[in-house]
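FORM 12-B: Structure-to-Sequence Request
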């Protein structure tokens, strides 16, 4: 028992979730972290998966591990844990638990991301290969050469766009703090973003209507917020029929700046609204491809909002249009009283 005591003290110091069970599987010791899992000292351990791991450690006289979803401490929700059982002496076994839910979720996200990237890159790469091959066979037809060369150029620029957005998103996800933030007048930043989409709007004969409170000063990464707003504008234009109107408003709401982008475009069904902020999620993949979309634009907006302590939300009705609201926290010095 002396050994068990020392082991638990060490694990307590390391903030590890650990319990020591006696030969009848009663928990005689538990660290604070184990109690947070719902494992209480002086009670019998009841989780079947953990009991069989402990039995195995006892019978083989060696340390054993298992990883899986377990209802630890009688809780309703399963937790993904890595459990290790090691024999300690006559009948006693020490069991440690590591909550790997978050690590597993990250692993899954990473795996999905890599699978999605490979899929997204395959299409333009395949097209480039085919076009190059066709070009080789068309050397005696200058008109065809021109046509294929311009398609080649389009696919290459599409590929470049996807890669650029992937890099941007990875950078945003890796960042724990916003770099290069400086105070700026939010209305100016929004007007600047409007200029960036002016040509696109003109090409579809669309009006951009702004109603901006120009007294709001905010400390943000100028480039990131301009990217987020530009992405929202581009979507509003791309997912609307020609001749429509896109509205942008900026106002103060308590301690937040509220930026609202409204369109009267195709709209988004309720079941898709929760998913459009996921990487590569597109409601209508062919329409998105037509407009040069990558399915990454809103994921980028979401990360920029999160990195700034803000939020992005959507309200939309299919056939009527969509409203995206970006809220950004203001600091005490954000009122321009001059
Ligand atoms: P994409 O590059 O495909 O535009 P986004 O991440 O920006 O990717 O958007 C994801 C999907 O959400 C789009 O493919 C589109 O289906 C939908 N969407 C985004 N903005 C709008 C909008 N303003 N109106 C209608 N649908 C939209």
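FORM 12-B RESPONSE
SEQUENCE OUT:
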């Amino acid at each position: 028992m002396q050994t068990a005591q020392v082991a638990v003290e060490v694990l307590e110091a390391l903030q590890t979730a650990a319990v020591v069970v006696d030969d009848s599987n009663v928990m005689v010791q538990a660290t604070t972290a184990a109690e947070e899992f719902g494992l209480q000292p002086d009670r019998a351990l009841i989780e079947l998966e953990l009991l069989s791991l402990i039995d195995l450690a006892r019978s083989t006289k060696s340390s054993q591990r298992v990883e899986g979803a377990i209802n630890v401490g009688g809780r309703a929700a399963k937790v993904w844990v890595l459990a290790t059982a090691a024999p300690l002496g006559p009948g006693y076994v020490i069991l440690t638990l590591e909550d790997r839910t978050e690590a597993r979720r990250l692993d899954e996200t990473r795996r999905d991301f890599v699978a999605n990237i490979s899929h997204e890159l395959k299409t333009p790469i395949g097209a480039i290969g085919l076009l190059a091959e066709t070009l080789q066979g068309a050397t005696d037809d200058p008109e065809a050469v021109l046509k294929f060369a311009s398609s080649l150029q389009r696919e290459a620029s599409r590929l470049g766009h996807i890669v650029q957005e992937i890099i941007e998103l990875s950078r945003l996800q890796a960042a724990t703090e916003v770099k290069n933030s400086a105070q700026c007048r939010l209305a100016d930043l929004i007007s600047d973003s409007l200029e960036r989409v002016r040509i696109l709007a003109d090409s579809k004969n669309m009006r951009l209507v702004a109603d901006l409170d120009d007294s709001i000063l905010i400390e943000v990464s100028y480039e990131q917020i301009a990217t987020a707003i530009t992405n929202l504008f581009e979507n509003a234009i791309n997912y609307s029929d020609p001749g429509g109107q896109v509205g942008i408003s900026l106002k103060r709401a308590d301690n937040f700046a509220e930026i609202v982008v409204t369109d009267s475009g195709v709209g988004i069904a309720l079941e898709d609204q929760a998913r459009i902020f996921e990487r590569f999620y597109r409601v209508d993949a062919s329409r998105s491809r037509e407009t040069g979309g990558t399915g990454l634009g809103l994921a980028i907006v979401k990360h920029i909002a999160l990195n700034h302590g803000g939020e992005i939300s959507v309200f939309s009705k299919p056939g009527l249009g969509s409203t995206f609201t970006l809220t950004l926290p203001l600091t005490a010095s954000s009122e321009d009283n001059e």
